[in-house]
Write a structure and sequence with these properties.
The chain has about 425 residues and is of the alpha+beta class. It contains 14 helices and twelve strands.
Length: about 425
């Protein structure tokens, strides 16, 4: 069974404008006063693109003319949109979400679907995973998101539209009657104004009314759209998260620990798990990393990081772990650690030729000479860390985990 998240930024344009203003020293926070984004500041033309919670209390709606909004709330604050800024905040958020999984389908500048199924084993529950993502987005960027959780994209999206802001909601199939059917039919995804008026004439007022009506009647009055709305009302939707193929600028992973790591040995074990995850994702993407960084969040939420250029590009779990452990040793100041993360960057294709240094060449020649001597137990002594033996082992482990699950093969130290 799939577990799908729908992640939606709360009042994205207004939130992103507010965060940027606060960064630049503003004393006000647009999210805490009656405020909107949209239109032209001087002429007050155009429509409302985003609104604060305070503005919503005045009856201001997204999409209505700015002039109407000012009539409803004369003291309203308005800022013009900055789409370049919004694209940048969207890019940063998506780049962060990719540190959890590549299985993400971005559907607009401020919302996406995330297939949680493949990383569910890392968390006690989907809700715990969603809470971590939600809280880390706020800690890292200063804006909030709602996350809806279900078994398909439709129900996940419906769940994310429940109470806002900064909330996590579930809407699993067994919760449809209790949580969704009592809502007005106008709140059903894709139920536009004209469709809602037609349904009201048929005495269909709630999503539950629509779900329990004869689907052929809905189809008679609303054509194929009526059938689709009836299916949505019954919780039927796609489970497929279509991940866009993007050129990765970096691949990483991080984890908030259930118990603070107090010793280096505890941290090293977590780093090894993270290195295995990042290595597998690099190999899946057919990439190697030239740079590695380690992030540490201490028990008091203070965050520090350290990065280093690799000696040569790699996607080997072992090499990533060694580098991460070395970086951690330099970075850690002895305090208990709440979160650990590693991130690879400066990626190149795994089949790109590597340039050996003057120190690598003798070792490579020695390795070839030893392998050519019959009857002698040989060892590949290339200075390059990604030996053929290691590559074959990594490929074999990747295939086993792909077929039988992430936990099918474990290192002995994890048992």
């Amino acid at each position: 069974m799939s577990i799908i998240f729908h992640i939606d930024v709360n009042s994205a344009y207004l939130s992103w404008t507010a965060v940027e203003e606060l960064k630049n020293g503003a004393e006000r926070d647009l999210r805490k006063i009656p405020a909107i984004i949209g239109g032209d500041q001087e002429s007050r033309h155009g429509v409302v693109l985003a609104k604060s919670v305070s503005a919503k209390k005045y009856g201001i709606r997204t999409g209505e003319p700015v002039a109407n909004a000012f009539r409803k709330c004369p003291g309203l604050t308005m800022e013009s949109p900055d789409h370049k800024l919004y694209r940048e905040y969207s890019r940063r958020m998506m780049e962060f979400l990719y540190t959890y999984t590549p299985d993400i389908e971005q559907v607009s500048v401020d919302e996406c679907y995330l297939d949680f199924t493949g990383i569910a084993h890392r968390f006690l529950s989907p809700v715990e995973g969603a809470l971590e993502i939600k809280d880390r987005v706020y800690e890292k960027f200063g804006f909030t998101v709602n996350i809806g959780i279900s078994t398909n994209k439709l129900l996940a999206k419906m769940a994310s539209d429940f109470e806002k802001p900064n909330k996590v909601h579930t809407l699993f199939p067994e919760e449809i009657q209790e949580k969704m059917w009592k809502l007005p039919v106008s709140e059903l995804y894709m139920a536009g104004r004209a469709s809602v008026e037609t349904l009201k004439k048929l005495e269909i007022y709630t999503i539950g009314d629509l779900a329990n009506m004869d689907p052929s009647l809905a189809e008679l009055h609303l054509k194929s759209h009526g059938r689709m709305l009836w299916e949505f009302a019954n919780g039927k939707g796609s489970e497929n998260v279509t991940a866009q193929k993007v050129e990765a600028k970096g691949i990483g992973n991080s984890i908030t620990l259930s118990k603070d790591a107090a010793t280096e040995e505890e941290a090293r074990e977590i780093l090894l798990r993270l290195a295995e995850s990042v290595g597998a994702r690099l190999r899946k993407a057919k990439q190697k990393a030239n740079m590695l960084s380690v992030e540490v969040k201490y028990y008091n939420f203070e965050v520090n990081s350290h990065q280093r250029q690799m000696k040569r590009p790699t996607n080997s779990d072992t090499d990533l772990y060694r580098e991460a452990a070395s970086l951690y040793r330099e970075l850690w100041d002895g305090r208990p650690v709440r979160l650990l993360g590693i991130r690879s960057s400066k990626l190149v294709g795994e089949n790109e030729p590597e340039q050996l240094s003057i120190f690598d060449i003798p070792a490579a020649q020695e390795g070839r000479q030893e392998k050519s001597q019959p009857g002698k137990q040989t060892e590949e002594r290339f200075a390059a860390p990604d030996t053929e033996r290691q590559k074959k082992l990594n490929r074999a482990l990747d295939e086993i985990r792909k077929k039988y699950g992430e936990n099918a093969v474990k290192r002995g130290r994890f048992l």
